[in-house]
Amino acid sequence: MKRLFFLLLALLVSIPVFAQPTIPDYPARYDVGLSAAFTKNRREAVIAKLPPDALALFLNNPLRNRSNDTDFEYQPDRNTYYLTGSHEEGTFLLLAPAGVEVDGKTVKEILFVPPRNPQTETWNGRLFGADRAIKELGVALAIDNTRFEEVVGKLLDSNKFKIYHMPFQDGLEGADAPNPRWMPIITKTIGYLKTQFTERKLAPNRDLLPQILRELRGVKQPEEMRVLQKAIDISATAHLEAMQSAEPGMFEYQLEAVLEYVYQLNGAAFPGYPSIVGSGENTTILHYNTNRRQIKDGDMVLIDAAAEYMGYTADITRTFPANGKFTPEQKAIYELCLKAQNAAADAGKIGTPLNQLSIVAHNVIADGLMEMGLLKERSKFRNFTLHGVAHHIGLDVHDWGGNKIEEGMVFTIEPGIYIKPSEEVDPKWWNIGVRIEDDYLATKDGLKLLSGIAPRSVSDIEAAMRKKGIGNLPNGRLSGK
Ligand code: GLY
Ligand code: MN
Ligand code: MN
């Protein structure tokens, strides 16, 4: 009887406990770009290159206003992202090789994060908050960014440290910033730091961190290669689809739509830079991106476009005839450009300076244009080539990295030949603008082509264009134009 009584009592007491539903803590993000192990390794690599008395600060980008009360989608500072994996505005990183004591813990890294806030999270999305940042981003200590002044102030009071920071972006000068409503945390933080530098007569160093990050970011780690290769594969597939979708009568923006459809379809959230889709006379404008012209029969189409996947961007250019068949002049210029690209790629050995690749490519182009009679004086080849041919890619489309090729570097080779109408040139060549841009990994055995999914040779392009692409389907287009 007594036992039954206790059993009933226990049941009664436990009912409210069982009835209480657990409130789920939904994730702050659904896909992980850079793992906690990778970013930890990168922070350790930075710490190993810092002087022992350093306090190294990595702040972040402001949210940029687009117009009135609409903002651009947020883009985190690339170095802070590389070192933390966080996309959140208002996330700052402090590295201290000697270790600093905060809240009774001695740590070499502190992540300052936006505090969780139901109002912000209801309007703009969920935040990590300090506890989850420690668990999910793998930092030794995360605290609310509202404590930045208190924590950094104390460290400065100790007079034991020297501040290292990345150069501050223009216009983020504190309370008098152009539009503080959109950048309160970053402007306040920079304003605070500048006041401290003046009042405490500090001479912070803003050269060392860019130097360290340039070295580290220039050589891609296996985890970055996984993400970057995916960006490249998505981009090259998009080029193939756009090429197969092209036909005279379409508008440039319709090919842009095909490209960006393929990006989103494959999980790439943004183009890595504004898509360049130039036809006819627009093929000779290097960064044309209004993309509004109607494509005509006989035009060349130049597409320089690539996806950004998990913060990493490819950079690919393909040029093809709108109607799928090169004219003899288009073919001659295209094949010269391809020959220049292949020559530059063959010259890309470990230890070669990247700018040497431009010299190699331009020599091939100058010789070819002389042979074709398009160039009267060899030294004037720059009138047709207009730009250098190699740059790193990665977290930025023009990524950070050194000039001398090292194993693990990833860069583009992108020779171009641009023929504008002019009295010196036979009209049959006018408005042939060709650029071929591919992405390469430097290995001990030479350069490895990473963007070969998009056809490169004249015969491969013509063969690919005999098939239809997704942009030819009527689905989703309004009737009429
Ligand atoms: N898409 C810019 C460049 O090729 O450098
Ligand atoms: Mn490029
Ligand atoms: Mn490009």
Please, could you describe this protein's structure?
Helix 9 (222-245) packs antiparallel against helix 10 and helix 11 (328-347) packs antiparallel against helix 12. This protein folds into two domains: 36-215, Creatine Amidinohydrolase, Chain A, domain 1; 219-472, Creatine Amidinohydrolase, CATH 3.90.230. The protein starts with a helix and ends in a 16-residue tail after the last helix. The strands form six sheets. The protein has a five-stranded mixed β-sheet with strand order 6-5-4-1-7. It has a four-stranded antiparallel β-sheet with strand order 14-15-18-19. It has 481 residues and is of the alpha+beta class. It is 38% helix and 18% strand. One manganese (II) ion binds at residues 304, 315, 317, 437.
Topology:
Elements: H1 2-19, H2 36-49, E1 54-58, E2 65-67, E3 70-71, H3 78-84, E4 92-102, E5 105-113, H4 118-124, H5 129-137, E6 142-144, H6 148-157, E7 162-165, H7 184-199, H8 208-218, H9 222-245, H10 252-265, E8 270-271, E9 276-279, E10 300-305, E11 307-309, E12 312-313, E13 316-321, H11 328-347, H12 354-372, H13 382-385, E14 390-392, E15 410-413, E16 416-419, E17 432-435, E18 438-443, E19 446-449, H14 458-465
Parallel strand pairs: 1-7, 5-6
Antiparallel strand pairs: 1-4, 2-3, 4-5, 8-11, 9-10, 10-13, 11-12, 14-15, 15-18, 16-17, 18-19
Helix pairs in contact: 2-8, 9-10, 11-12
Bound molecules: glycine and manganese (II) ion (MN) (2 copies).
Major sheet details: 5 strands, mixed
Low-confidence stretches: none
Assess the beta-strand content as a share of residues.
Answer: 15-25%
Determine the N-to-C terminus distance.
Answer: 86 Å
Helical stretch tally: 14
Report the CATH C-level class of the largest domain. Alpha Beta
- CATH superfamily caption of the largest domain: Creatinase/methionine aminopeptidase superfamily
- CATH fold-level label of the largest domain: Creatine Amidinohydrolase
Helical fraction equals: 25-40%
Average pLDDT rating: 93
Structural category is alpha+beta
**Widest beta sheet: strand line-up:** 6-5-4-1-7
Please tell me the total number of domains.
2
Rg (C-alpha, Å)? 27 Å
Tell me which CATH architecture of the largest domain applies here.
Alpha-Beta Complex
Shape: globular
Extended strand count = 19
Distinct ligands: glycine, manganese (II) ion
Subunit organisation of the chains: single chain
